[in-house]
């Protein structure tokens, strides 16, 4: 059989079948190469899977899961029960041919070839990791044609652009329970992401059971931490999904939780309590205190047994060293050791930490501030600083690889900034202004989206990560040449958003829950009209000074129902674009319908507010929407906007844009301006 | 302060405030006594909680949780951070006064008194269990009045009718993961239920880690079992919610999973594999084999360390003894020991089990078949047999208490039968035809709703339990006299359904997910029209012979989106009732609107079917709905139904009722008949 598979694949990829164009890809991330052929493979109750060659337990589980997903999506009662080595039918719809098990290594082969013919589906890969990616591609290809559930006939050759395709989740600012982590691992693997970076400690919490110093999690977590059993469970779960797990203990800054538990390690003698606000705080470990290294050695030692990955992330970001400079003993230590600047002291600290990690068999990973001559080239640098931090656009990553480090990019992938998918999708790893040698470019291992959790809870976690992160995943996986077309990306993002919900994502359903809650179960569809054109305020402006919200604030409000790339706003933007290209009566009518909805929604909205005072904060926003609806109707139906009115309307829209009610913004104002300006030329 | 609280409570309950009637209670279960007073206590950011008297850790957690819920529901940024002994403000909105910690005992005091005045809220109770019930009552009372979040002023005295208010969840037929169990414990406690009966083994699975015989869970669970750590975690979690946990290992029948792992314990020498279908099967343990008791002793020994409750449930149901009678050795054993009937052999088996339990400090609990002279009166009997099993209505429970046992009732509370809430609500513990002495009546400890899981998965679990089980919880908690009014129950059930969603239930949101999935994200609102008037087939008729569906079938289909007490069907029923009482033009118009929707929905439904073949199975049902709409419109708008047409229409409706498309029934046919028949008299 193996020989047969190989021969068939060779034939197909050499000579090809009759090719056919497809209007629209379903896939995200797009594969390196794909050819569509005429016809379909039809799913029926005999649909089954067989694994050839190397048998890995995780691949059986994965294949079984995809089999179940296909049954669940089609409603077909597939005969094949649970998939095990002993249960594989000899005649199978899907044959998976694997050479060996994959390792979590930056050199690993994750490629696969996929052939779907009318006779069946063949996935061929070097490692089981590649086969798992192939299975996800198969699942994404499932579609309906002519009353049947089918797979289009394709030949795919695929391998990732980058080996490091990560998502960081901060579980310190708000704790994220085990199942929410697991669900997101599952969603990550569905878009071929393979690194989970677990930000386990920060000023607001220390989230790991440490037996040698139990006060760390007992005093540092409000009772919300992961037991060792839970961590092992998550690491094993991730491994079964082809995802490596990188733990982060952020030191020497971002250490308030550690110091709340162990104030004796502090650089300043004061009382420490868990931080409840957001921001950059001064509590910092004392790098001149030997106990600091003793404790970190114990912590890293215990954690090294939980986390098999070779990398261990030690944070290292945003330490301003204030409490060092104000401590005479530390200042004296710096003088004695010829450390001129807090940066030098941090380098000293990192070099000590590096040795602790090395003695536990770990390589060091850290935010870009850890770069220093004391840190050897085996370190992995996470680039995060950008224009706001005084770095030239895109320069920070290039600096790291020019310094000789392997590096990954997070600047440009901060999903907590609440920017649209298009923004992350257009992030370039190396700007045009910078030239890298081939060796330097090879040191760019990939990227990580970062989900900082100041303003999220398990209720909103998924809607803050998905579907946007699928577009980022494509950025990490697909060839650069295939990640340029934003409109095409959005059309596929809409499809992948549905697939994500089918396999468990809560990004749609929890949004609806919040809408029902905030409307007090009175006409939620009216509230939805406003939610769908509003977005949470961006780039940390929702939470001024990091103090308007704290850990225990309600994250169950209007802003929490709103998502980035607001659906109604995107639809309106498309209608305006169509209208500008062609002011046909059809395009006019579509806009008129939207404007009517905006206009009439407000009186109902006020009814809802009367039963749900929680919504008072956005009553003005609803009124603005009403005004824009009236304005739109006046423009299109009555066709009698004077130049003076137009000018005043545009000014009015600027005021509307500035409204911060409910800590959200009306996301239709730019499109509305384009619409109004276009009237001049009509 | 304690004295002040006591004095105030005495004054209020003695003299009372000015009383005011309230149109509608929010509460479920209803308290023993409640008086409303004029006015409200208003929630603002100073809202806070203090605990007086006995300090129990679980009460702090519970109070903190309710504080967070109030903040989340109102959107008010409550100043008080996490609630601990050290963080209690001296001036508090809520003062909780508790004498001592509660125990899980059938004699325990769970009563509380609740006083809400304009100055604040006082909860007074003997045990922390009582205070926790009081906190749930407070949360249910939260409402909106005149633009504010308020609590109505009330004096409540409350205590449960029954001490045993349980929910059984079967995790054998389909495995239910830890978080789904925890969420349902939380929901149970919100309606004052206090017993979680965990059905851990059956023909389809053995779900407990047992270290002395690891093959039990390794071969008996498809990898889906609870580790000891997870079990301890769940038991502790339940205890913090005031819920006791009763484990069940179902023996000697329902034992296919055990025998798959350990065929040497079987009464018949054959090959055993995990059962994938539903029903009553013949595999049964060999009660003549000493190893059977050795293994059960080990299992019970290990489990007794995980489950602190004094009761241990050994199943004992539905063993027909076929494999005993066909085994000559067993027949010989029976003869030798003068055991005439398989029942006698099972009694022998139970008496051995009883001793194992006793040696582990456990009392025996079992399904009613375990009653026998060998079983002492300390046993707790679970009555489940009813008319279908040849028992007189309501007789089985009474028999058990007449036999001298404590007993609980499950017959009449089988929620997997998919009957309406009204059916369970009208279940009587003792039928009028039976007389019990006071002592006998006192032996009725309460009841348990049973959630057998042949046709449920985590996706549908909540919608199969909630909100119906809240009505059952009221049956167990509230005075008998207060559980008679079905309409009133339904109006409060609608409220409690929303509260359940607010605190995490997935019964609404997962239904929407399934609707989106089965519509393939094309016009889900059209599919919802049909879902909302259909119910899953009842009383096990959805799964004929237990073989149409198996463990791995897709439970993601039309029937899985449908719920009992279908919303649209209930609304239509109410409109028909209104119309029959008064055929005003207003009432006519409301019906006309519904009929129009039914009529017009079908063409859109066919559009959806074209993109989602999974829905073909209910296309005819949509057509029937369309026909009923046309018929309704003809009756009301055209007013020209002839007696002959009416007769034919009624016959047609009988056919429609019999349609089993999608394994569902159109739940509007009875109301439609009432409507048509009423036309005769108009």
How would you briefly describe this protein structure?
Chain A contains 25 helices and 18 strands. By secondary structure, chain A is of the alpha/beta class.
Q: Please indicate the count of domains of chain A.
A: 4
Amount of helix of chain A: 40-55%
Say what oligomer this is: homodimer
Low-pLDDT windows of residues of chain A: 13-21
What is the arithmetic mean of pLDDT of chain A?
94
Radius of gyration based on Cα positions of chain A: 27 Å
Number of helices of chain A: 25
Biggest interface pair, residues each? A-B, 50 and 50 residues
C-alpha end-to-end distance of chain A: 67 Å
Content of β-strand of chain A? 5-15%
Q: Structural class, from helix and strand content of chain A?
A: alpha/beta
Shape of chain A from CA axes? globular
- Biggest β-sheet strands, sense, barrel of chain A: 9 strands, mixed
Strand runs of chain A, count: 18
Note down, in words, how this protein is organized:
The structure is a homodimer of 682-residue chains. Chain A is globular, with a radius of gyration of 27 Å. Chain A has 25 helices and 18 strands. In chain A, α18 packs across α19 (524-531) and α22 (585-611) runs antiparallel to α23. Residues 13-21 of chain A have low confidence and may be disordered. In chain A, α2 links the parallel β2 and β3. Chain A folds into four domains: 2-158, Chitobiase/beta-hexosaminidase domain 2-like (Chitobiase, domain 2, 2-Layer Sandwich); 161-199 and 377-484, Alpha-Beta Barrel (TIM Barrel), CATH 3.20.20.80; 201-370, TIM Barrel, CATH 3.20.20.80; 509-679, no CATH class. Chain A is an alpha/beta fold. In chain A, 51% of the residues are buried. Helix content of chain A is 43%, strand content 15%. In chain A, strands 8, 9, 10, 11, 12, 13, 14, 15 and 16 form a nine-stranded mixed beta sheet that branches. In chain A, strands 1, 2, 3, 4, 5, 6 and 7 form a seven-stranded mixed beta sheet that branches. Chains A and B meet through α2, α17 and α18 of A and α2, α17 and α18 of B.
């Amino acid at each position: 059989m193996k020989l047969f598979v190989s021969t068939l694949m060779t034939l197909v990829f050499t000579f090809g079948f009759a090719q056919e164009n497809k209007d629209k890809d379903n896939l995200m991330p797009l594969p390196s190469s794909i050819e569509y052929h005429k016809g379909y493979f039809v799913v029926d109750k005999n649909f089954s899977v067989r694994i050839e060659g190397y048998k890995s337990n995780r691949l059986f589980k994965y294949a079984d899961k995809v089999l179940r997903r296909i049954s669940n999506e089609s409603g077909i009662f597939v005969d094949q029960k649970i998939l095990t080595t002993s249960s594989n039918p000899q005649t199978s719809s899907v044959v998976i041919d694997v050479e060996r098990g994959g390792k979590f290594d930056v050199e690993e082969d994750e490629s696969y070839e996929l052939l779907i013919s009318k006779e069946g589906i063949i996935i061929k890969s070097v490692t089981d990791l590649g086969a798992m990616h192939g299975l996800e591609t198969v699942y994404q290809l499932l579609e309906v044609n002519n009353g049947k559930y089918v797979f289009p006939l394709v030949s795919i050759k695929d391998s990732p652009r980058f080996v490091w395709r990560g998502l960081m989740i901060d579980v310190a600012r708000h704790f994220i329970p085990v199942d929410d982590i697991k669900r997101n691992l599952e969603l990550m693997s569905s878009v071929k992401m393979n690194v989970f970076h677990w930000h386990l400690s920060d000023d607001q919490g220390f989230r790991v059971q440490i037996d040698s110093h139990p006060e760390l999690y007992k005093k540092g977590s409000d009772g919300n931490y992961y037991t060792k059993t839970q961590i092992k469970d998550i690491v094993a779960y991730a491994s079964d999904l082809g995802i490596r797990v990188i733990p982060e203990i952020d030191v020497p800054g971002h250490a308030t939780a550690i110091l709340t538990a162990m104030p004796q390690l502090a650089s300043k003698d004061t009382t420490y309590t868990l931080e409840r606000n957001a921001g950059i705080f001064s509590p910092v470990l004392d790098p001149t205190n030997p106990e600091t290294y003793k404790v970190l050695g114990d912590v890293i030692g215990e954690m090294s047994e939980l986390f098999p990955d070779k990398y261990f992330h030690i944070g290292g970001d945003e330490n301003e060293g204030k409490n060092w400079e104000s401590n005479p003993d530390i200042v004296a230590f710096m003088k004695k050791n010829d450390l001129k600047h807090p940066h030098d002291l941090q380098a000293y600290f990192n070099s000590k930490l590096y040795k602790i990690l090395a003695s536990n068999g770990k390589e060091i990973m850290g935010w870009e501030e850890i770069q220093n001559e004391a840190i050897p080239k085996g370190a992995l640098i996470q680039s995060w600083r950008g224009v706001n931090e005084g770095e030239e656009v895109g320069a920070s990553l290039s600096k790291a690889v020019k310094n000789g480090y392997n590096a990954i990019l997070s600047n440009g992938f901060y999903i907590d900034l609440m920017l649209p998918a298009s923004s992350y999708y257009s992030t370039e790893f190396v700007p045009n202004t910078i030239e890298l040698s081939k060796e330097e470019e090879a040191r760019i291992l990939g990227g990580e989206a970062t989900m900082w959790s100041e303003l999220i809870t398990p209720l909103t976690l998924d809607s803050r990560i998905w579907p946007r992160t699928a577009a980022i995943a494509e950025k990490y996986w697909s060839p650069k040449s295939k990640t340029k077309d934003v409109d095409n990306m959005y059309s596929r993002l809409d499809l992948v958003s549905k697939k994500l919900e089918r396999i468990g994502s809560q990004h749609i359903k929890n949004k609806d829950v919040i809408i029902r809650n905030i409307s007090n179960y009175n006409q939620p569809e009216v509230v939805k009209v406003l939610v769908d054109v509003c977005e949470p305020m961006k780039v940390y402006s929702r939470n001024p000074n990091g103090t308007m919200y704290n850990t225990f604030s309600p994250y169950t409000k209007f802003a929490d129902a709103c998502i980035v790339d607001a659906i109604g706003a995107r639809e309106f933007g498309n209608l305006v674009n169509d209208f500008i290209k062609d002011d046909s009566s059809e395009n006019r009518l579509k806009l008129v319908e939207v404007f009517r909805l905006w206009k009439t929604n407000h009186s109902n909205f006020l009814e809802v507010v009367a039963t749900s005072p929680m919504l008072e904060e956005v009553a003005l926003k609803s009124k603005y929407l009403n005004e824009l609806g009236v304005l739109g109707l006046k423009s299109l139906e009555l066709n009698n906007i004077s130049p003076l009115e137009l000018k005043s309307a545009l000014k009015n829209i600027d005021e509307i844009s500035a409204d911060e009610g409910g800590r959200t913004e009306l996301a239709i104002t730019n499109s509305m301006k384009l619409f109004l300006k276009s009237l001049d030329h009509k």
